[in-house]
Amino acid sequence: MTSTVRGSQLARLLGQWHSLPGRHRSPDYAALAAAVRGLLSDGRLPLGVRLPAERELAEALAVSRTTVSAAYRTLRETGHLTSRRGAGSWTTLPNGHRVATSGLWAAGDDRDIIDLGVAAHRAPDELLAAARAAVEDLPRYLGSAGYHPTGLVELREAVAAGYTARGVATSAEQILITAGTQQALDLVLRMSVPAGSPVLVEAPTYPNALAALAARRARIATHGLDTATGWDAEMLLGALRQGRPRCAYVIPEFHNPTGHLMDADLRERLVATAHTAGTELIVDESFVDLPLDGGEMPPPVAVFDRHSRVVSIGGMSKAYWGGLRIGWVRASAPFVQRLAAIRVGVDMASPVLEQLVGVRLLEQSQRIVAARRAELRSRRDVLIAALREHLPEWTFTVPGGGVMLWAELDGPISSALARAAEDVDVRLAPGPRFGLDGTLERYLRLPFTLPEGVLVEAVKRIASVRYDLDRSSRPSWRAPAVIA
Is the CB of residue 79 less than 8 Å from the CB of residue 454? Predict the structure, then answer.
């Protein structure tokens, strides 16, 4: 059955569609059509969705029906809308286009694309040796069925030892190994968030967390982070007290995408307030291993947990390699056992060989992570220098860790800039991907995981198309093939 987007829903997604730089001289219908194409291009408006009737959308946008009719006609002409009398109009793609996991992408040689849409980096040099050693470890598991729903004991012990070293005593029974941090989050939500439950998240936040919550049909409420200062303690704690959500999802270490680090005092107050409100805290620690400027890290949020309200998730994607799908959940032992029972219905268990590779890498964690931090520190500083030289109007807070910075642009142009960057083979993740209902158009997430020279070149290309936006009188759509 084809789903339908209501006029009020599409209006929220469109946001400030008529006020982007470079479009103020365009007719309203052209700007509206371009904004709908933009929603398709970054994945916020799915394919095959029936758009609202012309009159309904005109009322939601407070424009004339003629404007909407002309916009729909333009979208049909470019191949982004298919209409049938009596059946309505639904979103499509021009001939030769297809959908990628990160939205739409223009044709080009993948080797020439600078991908700033993914905050990840290459594998560490030690990975191959770790894989060879893991193969040598494999024979002792070959006599069993190979299903370990909670994970291999030796990997669980290694992860537990990491938590204990950070100040929160943890046993292997409190660890569940998963296929990456995203699966860890999905499993926790399956157990803790019945359909329709209220959940509190930060705004902005990790896009795939929003997708996982949407899949659970959660009622999402947001708490805004200040670009410069991060969490407003009273507003965050007030949202917990007043809303009493079933769960709250937070990223306290080098928050994705803003890079902020939550202080120890707020962590303690957050746990106490969550207990009072009856809220379970899901704490995403994906970036905890990546402080870049020295200084003592705050204790884990779980240190302050006295009532089993904190569930911590993490993994090896950011400090080690995204291609190694190793994640985990740290919680009470009974919670982990219930989670393992749910996990059996999803994928049975994680691959044994990958877990053995993870064990070998964690044995070398000090050397591997130290090298990763040095690499990221250098790349962060190069990216910052390039932005200050080529895009001085943009502002940002220098992150003390993690792999990205959150730039405030000189106008609500994030989606338009991401589309324009396709012309110069740069892939961007515009601000609205990190929020709800088309907000955050003034922001852009910029990871610094690529080599220094590539980052500088990317900023130069972004700057060139940024200034072209002001000179452009009409938006345009190209029709090459779309690739992942």
Answer: no
| High-pLDDT (> 90) share of the chain, % | 71
Q: Tokens 């003034």 sit at which residue?
A: 442
CB-CB neighbours of 125 under 10 Å:
10
Is residue 458 a contact partner of residue 58, using CB atoms and an 8 Å limit? no
Cα torsion through 232, 236, 241, 246, rounded to 10? 180
- Inter-axis angle of helices 352-363 and 365-390, to 10 degrees? 80
Which portions of the chain are predicted below pLDDT 70? 1-2, 19-26, 41-44, 95-111, 471-484
**pTM as predicted:** 0.80
Cβ count near 470 (within 10 Å): 11
Tokens of 285: 């620690």
Q: How many other C-beta atoms are found inside a 10 Å radius of the C-beta of residue 146?
A: 12
SS3 content of the chain, % helix, strand, coil (to 5): 45, 15, 40
Are 41 and 104 in contact, with CB atoms under 8 Å apart? yes
Sorted by sequence, the CB contacts under 8 Å of residue 452 that are 6+ apart come out as 378, 379, 382
Read off the amino acid at residue 426: V
**Please, are residues 211 and 189 in contact by the beta-carbon 8 Å criterion?**
no
Residues 6+ apart with CB under 8 A from 276: 241
- For 313-366, write each residue's pLDDT tens digit: 999 999 999 999 999 999 999 999 999 999 999 999 999 999 999 999 999 999
Per DSSP, which regions of 352-432 are E strands? 404-408, 426-427, 429-430
